[in-house]
Amino acid sequence: MNALASPLTYPWDRLTPDVGTLMTLRPGLHWVRMPMPFALNHINLWVLDDAGAWTVVDAGVATEAIRDAWQTLWAGPLASRPLGRMLVTHMHPDHVGNAQWLIERYSAPGEAARLWMSQADHLAARLACQSTTGFGGERAAAHFQAHGLNTPEDLAKVRARGDYYATLVPAVPHAYRRMMDGQTVRIGEREWRCIAGFGHSPEHIALHCEADGLLISGDMLLPTISTNVSVTDMEPEGDALGLFLDSVERMRALPADTLALPSHGLPFTGIHTRIDQLHAHHAERLAEVEAACRARPSTAAEMLPVLFRRQLDLHQTTFAMGEAIAHLNYLWHRGVLRREQDKHGAWRYGA
């Protein structure tokens, strides 16, 4: 277990639901865990009782293994009810990938379940299915090259990933119901307040049930890993890290004993401690980046061994580049570092 997790409490210890099964945490609140074909090898999804139907929170990547697990669930514990609504926290493939497939397959006859999502993430997901918004392709390669990634083999692989998002998210429902910060959504016997978060995705929505002390935190609060916060080619001067840190700080207003239901890892209590840990983690990384750039003006690619002390595959490198740029831009926007292009056209950040 990650050392950062030790101050947190895990009410179910290491117990997790088997693939294709439900684990009931509270009346009307069920935990589903699905496998993913990445280094981060699972995602937590949530099924909520909802007036004669099911509300599903997040859908998983569109892989055969996850679809098989959904079919097992709907042939078993979910068989008594249709899908009433498909609620998606944000636009990343492991969250929205099967949304259209679930709606088409498990809605009540003649009454298609509605997708619920924030406007910014719905539009971003629709666009990513048709374009190459930060996940690969020529623009992503040019963006990374402008930040010092100049290995021809790596750039060629990034260019070849032009349809990467669409392979994991074949379709996004055209129609949706918009979720916004502060909005209340009633699901079954519970009322959930939407909490918008930024930096990880355009407009991530977490859900807080005050009456029962529950937070479906999505990717904004994870117990043992730091959420990826990236600057992509669509907003190359963005301050994603600043937005993320401000967003998690706002969650400090929630009660300290709130039970967080994260998309990865285990349900936990201790959200204030976790917020402190995230601030401390990024402060440490920012200090390391600043020190390296004060020693020698550096590109984001040169920050990879500073920020990530392990071997990265291409999938991880694209996320790592986005995160390195996010840390550099954070310092640049606050006047700690300045940046200028070198003779090769790459951005170098220095004191």
Automatic annotation (TrEMBL):
Keyword Heme: no
Residues in Metallo-beta-lactamase domain copies: 42-264
InterPro entries to which the protein is assigned, alphabetical: B_lactamase-like_C, Metallo-B-lactamas, RibonucZ/Hydroxyglut_hydro, Sec-metab_biosynth-thioest, WH-like_DNA-bd_sf
Signal peptide: none
Family annotation (Pfam families): B_lactamase-like_C, Lactamase_B
Alphabetic keyword roster: Hydrolase
SMART domains: Lactamase_B
GO molecular function, one term: hydrolase activity
Protein name per UniProt: Zn-dependent hydrolase
Taxonomic placement: Bacteria, Pseudomonadati, Pseudomonadota, Betaproteobacteria, Burkholderiales
